[in-house]
Amino acid sequence: MSKPIKDMIASEYDRRFVGVTGAVVVEIRGLDAKAVTTMRGTLATKGIKLTVVKNALARRSFKGGPLASLDKALKGPSALLTGAENSILVARAIVKVAKDEKKIVLKGAIFDGEYYDGEAGVQRLSDFPTRAEAQGKVVTLILSPARNIMGVVKTIQEKLEAGETIAKVA
Fold first, then answer.
1. CB-hemisphere CA count at 13 Å for 138?
2. Do 98 and 114 contact (CB within 8 A), yes or no?
3. What single-letter DSSP state applies at residue 68?
4. Which among 13, 95, 12 is positioned nearest to 46, based on CA atoms?
5. Which residues are within 8 A (CB) of 129 and not within 5 positions of it... i.e. 6 or more apart?
6. Do 87 and 34 contact (CB within 8 A), yes or no?
7. What mean pLDDT is reported for the chain?
């Protein structure tokens, strides 16, 4: 491949991945065109884009940026999955697809500046809660003591309304 062509591809990667801070790298070798098209369609409904990349040019494009850690995963045939709200949702989606399509190899991911290596790393990332899920858990934890207290107050109120006395707890 000539240098001008390589430069064009690298600049396309620069343009395409500007502002991208997280991604998942997979290998889709062995999938037929129909399987890849189906997978792209499934992922696209979730706002995820699959881009087959040239490893050396991708490494060159990502150098010094938020995707630089992906160079460890960019060996052999590679495709980059980006989009959705964050890499957690991308990891969840591809893990689900990979359960049905055994030829997909999960090579690595990056989220919030941290690199997750191999299938185990991508699986671990997919198990993380999203920001909204984490906020929901925190709100639930904060509200649960208040609910318990309200339950005790309600019981006391019902006993008092029924004319019962409330014994002092020592």
1. 7
2. no
3. G
4. 95
5. 88, 137
6. no
7. 89
- Are the beta carbons of 122 and 116 closer than 8 angstroms? yes
* Helical segments of 17-166, H only: 33-44, 55-62, 87-100, 118-127, 131-161
Domains of the chain (ranges; CATH) run 3-128 (3.30.70.1730), 130-170 (no CATH)
Residue 72: helix, strand or coil by DSSP? helix
C-alpha to C-alpha distance for 124 and 122, rounded to whole angstroms: 5
Beta pairing partners, 27: 105
Task: Give the integer Cα–Cα distance in Å for 125 and 120.
Answer: 9
**Half-sphere exposure of residue 118, counting CA atoms within 13 Å on the CB side?**
1
Residue pair 104/31 in contact by the 8 Å Cβ criterion: yes
Per-residue pLDDT tens for 73-113?
999 999 999 987 788 999 999 999 999 888 999 999 999 88
- pTM, entire model: 0.75
